[in-house]
Amino acid sequence: MRRSVTAVIPNRNYARHLADRIGSVLGQDRVPDALVFLDDASEDESWEVAAGLLAGAPCPVTVRRNETCSGSVLHQWRAGVAEVRTDFTWIAEADDRAAPGMLGVLAAGLEADREAIFAFCQSTPIDEAGARIAEDDGYFTLGELKLLAADAVFGARDFLARGLCPRNMVVSASGVLWRTDRLRAALDAVAPEIGRWLCAGDWRVYAAACEGGGTIHHVAKPLNEHRRHPGSVTGSTRAPRHFSEVVAMHAYLRDLLGAAPARDRLMRQHLDALRAAWGLETPRTVREAVPVMALPIRPAIAPLMRAEAAQPPSVSRADAATLAA
Fold first, then answer.
1. Straight-line distance from the first to the last Cα atom of the chain, in angstroms, rounded to the nearest whole number
2. How far is the CA of 255 from the CAs of 303, 304, 319, 325, in angstroms?
3. How far apart are CA 133 and CA 126, in angstroms?
4. pLDDT tens figures, 41-67
5. What pLDDT is recorded for position 229?
6. Which has the closest alpha carbon to 7: 46, 33, 30?
7. φ, ψ for residue 122 (rounded to 5)?
8. pLDDT of amino acid 136
9. Cβ neighbours of residue 246 closer than 8 Å, sequence gap 6 or more
10. Beta strand 5-11 pairing with 34-40
11. Which spans in 228-310 are helix H?
12. Distance, C-alpha 291 to centroid of its chain
């Protein structure tokens, strides 16, 4: 049975990318049944550009404009979902774009499986100008690449353990189609934490959604393109802060899944790789940046993990001002 879909486009200062974004949403082979455009107090011409691009859209359009910046993309996700009246929701980030067949392929998976929480496809990185960036073969391990090599359906707990730990294998939020009630429930569950997450909020939402059971559908074909540029939230966030959020997710996932030596080893290896890549290698740097959050990953002090996981991401009290700068 064909279900209805709403595309939600959260935007802040991406006027230059809106033609790509809105064009690829309205240019889908399966056009969305509704569209919600959210502007988070943009300081560029986003509002005017969007108005022109959305005029004459082939589906109902809802627009909302914040007078002050919400401070979190997850606040915008919640605001967008509050406007949704359809079965499925596509969070189409304003600086990304999609192949014409993406929505139809992902919707087919959800329509065929009443237990499906969300369906996601692989995504290709592009630069500020829209040119494709060479894939970083070092991001995923060989085991993870094998996991993503073919279309698959995962049980929620299996996906928590293999698809969200030790890293988030859903590369782009724009390449995900949600069952609306499950997305709404996950956002409600993490609502008290939303203001704390700058980089890993989507990862946290996927994990919260999986806690309720169900299935995750994976499409191996890269039908989405996600933009990498310094102006993005992830690109503009300082490495110590990003690192603290990864550790917070590890703490939460370990508490949720239980201790497992092999999984603990993978988490430690991932953190070691991030320290090296982000210049957080020296003990002094890590200690100054995230002295509390670096602890729970150590199995010898597992009891601390439960305290830390209760309110992720908890950054160092002593260095909160430095991390927030």
1. 50
2. 10, 10, 25, 30
3. 5
4. 999 999 999 999 999 999 999 999 999
5. 66
6. 33
7. -70, 160
8. 58
9. 167, 200, 270, 271, 274
10. parallel
11. 233-236, 239-257, 261-278, 283-289, 302-309
12. 26
What pTM was computed for the model? 0.86
Return the bridge partners of 40, or none.
66
Q: How far apart are CA 25 and CA 8, in angstroms?
A: 10
Per-residue pLDDT tens digits for 226-246:
998 665 555 557 888 888 888
Q: What is the CATH architecture assignment of 5-229?
A: Alpha-Beta Complex (3.90)
pLDDT band at 312 (very low <50, low <70, confident <90, very high): very low
Residue 116 clears pLDDT 70, i.e. is over it: yes
Question: What residues does each domain of the chain span?
Answer: 5-229, 238-324
* 67 burial via Cβ count (<10 Å: 0-12, 13-18, 19+): exposed
Q: Distance (Å, rounded) from C-alpha 261 to C-alpha 302? A: 12
- Identify the DSSP state of 115: T
